[in-house]
Amino acid sequence: MSSKLSLNTKTVNSCTVPEAVELCRATGIESIGLWREPVAEYGLAATVDLVTAAGLRVSSLCRGGWFTATGPAFDEAIASNRAAIEEASALKADCLCLVVGGLPDGSKDLMGARDQVARALEILVPYATNLGVKLALEPMNPIYAADRGVLSTLGQALDLAAPYTADQVGVMIDTFHVWWDPTLQQQIQRAGDEGRILSYQVCDWITPLPADTLLARGMMGDGHIDFPTIGRWVAEAGYTGDIEVEIFNADIWAAEPRGVVDTMISRYEELCAPYAAIR
């Protein structure tokens, strides 16, 4: 199995941190993507010790962001992100994923919300740089622009990252969110040329969409995304890091975790690994 595969713990959402780490150990996966909530439940120091003892890389920590809140909620978001940066530093995560947030309640000012994301970065980048943490902006599919992510394209995320060095702010390329973009190949190459690809996440786009579109992700090969093509683009752009599988899907979450991971490995080896750049 390719050493680049990373299990994002959201794919096995019912698992605790120790259970997810054990799944990686049992199946030979060498990298794990962690979420802050399960880490807090198990304990940050305990998670650091567990991951270190298992010899796992932490491909990402999810998540920071939610910068579009207003008033005191914005200050609370900044404080939460400082804590997330500290956690990412302790875990030696490759990056901290930023889901930037949707429109504030009652607002239709999309440009203003994006400007507020830029303001948050101005505050947080020096703090992250001091702790050696790279911030990864995650553009989200446009269906989430109102409630989750006012950054909808890789190009928008790269424009927002531009004032900073590649060691400070980069992008997370998630196939689920960007596969539809007609400029995707060019923007992936741009991200590679700038050295800003901090994470590559894979999962599929399935139809019909469920009522809760947050849970619309599928196992690779179950939907409409051309993983070999996008994988080649990412490899040609110079990315050699981990490839993280992150799936939000009620049926997958209800399934037996070991079976999910076995299927994930099989699909990854078929659809992703042959098209990845060698580390």
Key descriptive features of the protein:
279 residues; alpha/beta; 8-stranded parallel beta barrel; 44% helix; globular
Write the layout of secondary structure elements.
Layout: E1 5-8, H1 17-27, E2 31-35, H2 36-42, H3 44-54, E3 57-65, H4 72-91, E4 96-99, H5 110-130, E5 135-137, H6 154-161, E6 169-174, H7 175-178, H8 184-193, E7 197-202, E8 204-205, E9 217-218, H9 227-236, E10 243-245, H10 250-254, H11 257-271
Parallel strand pairs: 1-2, 1-10, 2-3, 3-4, 4-5, 5-6, 6-7, 7-10
Antiparallel strand pairs: 8-9
Helix pairs in contact: 1-3, 4-5, 8-9
Secondary structural class: alpha/beta
Please state roughly what percent of the residues sit in beta strands, choosing from under 5%, 5-15%, 15-25%, 25-35%, 35-45% or over 45%.
Answer: 15-25%
For the biggest β-sheet, the strand order reads 1-2-3-4-5-6-7-10
Profile the largest sheet: 8 strands, parallel, barrel
Number of beta-strand segments: 10
Query: Number of helix segments?
Result: 11
Reported CATH architecture: Alpha-Beta Barrel
N→C terminal distance: 14 Å
As for the CATH topology, it is TIM Barrel
User: Whole-number radius of gyration?
Assistant: 17 Å
In which range does the helix fraction lie?
40-55%
